[in-house]
Design a protein that fits this description.
The complex is a heterodimer of chains A (317) and B (139). In chain A, 45% of the residues lie in helices and 13% in strands. Chain A has a 7-stranded parallel beta sheet with strand order 4-2-5-1-6-7-8, sandwiched between helices. In chain B, helix 1 links the parallel strand 1 and strand 2. Chain B is built from 5 helices and 5 strands. Chain B is α/β, with parallel strands linked by helices and 139 residues long. In chain B, helix 1 packs across helix 5, helix 2 crosses helix 3 and helix 3 packs parallel to helix 4. Chain B is 47% helix and 22% strand. Classes of the chains: A alpha/beta (317), B alpha/beta (139).
Chain lengths: 317, 139
Amino acid sequence: MQELINKALNGNVRSIARIISIVENESQFTEEIMKTMYPHSGNAHIIGVTGSPGAGKSTLVDKLIESSKADGKNVGVIAVDPTSPFSGGAILADRIRMQRHAVDPAVYIRSMGTRGSLGGLSRSTYEAALILDACGKDVVFIETVGVGQSEVDIMKIADTVCLALVPGMGDDIQIMKAGIMEIADILVINKSDRDGSEKIVAEVQTMLDLLKGKNWVPPVLKTVAEKGTGVKELSNKILCHKEFLQTDPEGRNRKLRQLTVEIEAILQRELAKLTEHQWGQHKDEQLMEKLLNRETDPYTVAGKILEDTLLNTPTRD
Amino acid sequence: MSEKKIRVIVSKPGLDGHDRGAKVIARALRDSGMEVIYTGLRQTPEQIVDTAIQEDADAIGISILSGAHNFYFSKIIELLKEKDASDIIVFGGGVIPDDDIAGLLEMGAGAIFGPGTSTSKCVEWLRETVGNKHNLESN
């Protein structure tokens, strides 16, 4: 395993791809991989691109890859598409819009299925981004699934979140609502050659007026990603935000918040595994019968399982 | 260790733009629980092979209706060898004359599914072939 990890750290594409799969499949080697990767990470700028289905996220990412490449950057992309809740299968097709970069050695594109996660990303997106960071990518773009109003997991990973909106998606009340609108560092009105783009710009601006006085007020940019219009300005704003994070305390605070969330996620995951195991041991017909007959209650049962889990868990090194 | 998800590239090389077959097979694979990386039309062999490597795919499914299957299969299989990725299974379908199938299999294609093949046959074949490959890798 260490050999594979070393090859990945040296930039070997096949090894990087393998390692991401191993982590994505939640194999026993995940921990070893992530422990080795972590010290090498922290150099890449992680940029999230989110927005509703069909807002033009993939096309925006395609154009942003081009700008980053022009700056001499080594680019990684993680594109997340939904997994079927029925079959567990997925059609991962974001990269159709990015295929012109497929043979570029400075660009690595990886598609991921959500595999049951509901926050707009997959459970292993954080790990995959960290791996690309550790393996020498200067910029990592993460494209979320097409989101609605509340899939905000991207803020737990990205340094800079770009939210793509399109004209004609609803009125000013939609923009006032909590959730997705609050996590944007940069607002992109894509397909802005369509009717209604001025209106949505005005509505978004009005909402942002309330943020006046903050150290970073999200800029509102108009793009037509397909034609490349406005993409240069978007790249520049992304760089401005990166500089902001480097100079303002918010940069450090954001990292600390993200790390806290990550630790909590690992704890929950590990605890879930342990308790699941204990529950498997406890579960029998007699117990279920008792529960059905109201002779005991779910809280007592769960409490007992938790207690046994903690008593029976060997301490780790 | 949790179950390995099967990842398959579905791609159309060259200039023919008839993607109905590719889409039908992509959906069938999806519905059988696989992750299908759909590259779209007009891909070069280099794009297809690099995509398969970046995506850590188990297999590449090629749909060809142009008659250029001998060229594309041999080129893709050759590139996979060159890039030390011959373990990635190549299979295909489309309008491929029966007389050419033996040659493609000899070249290293895993299977060729002609018109009229049921999607479940293709799914089963892929599941078994990739399953064997996964078992080999974990031993």
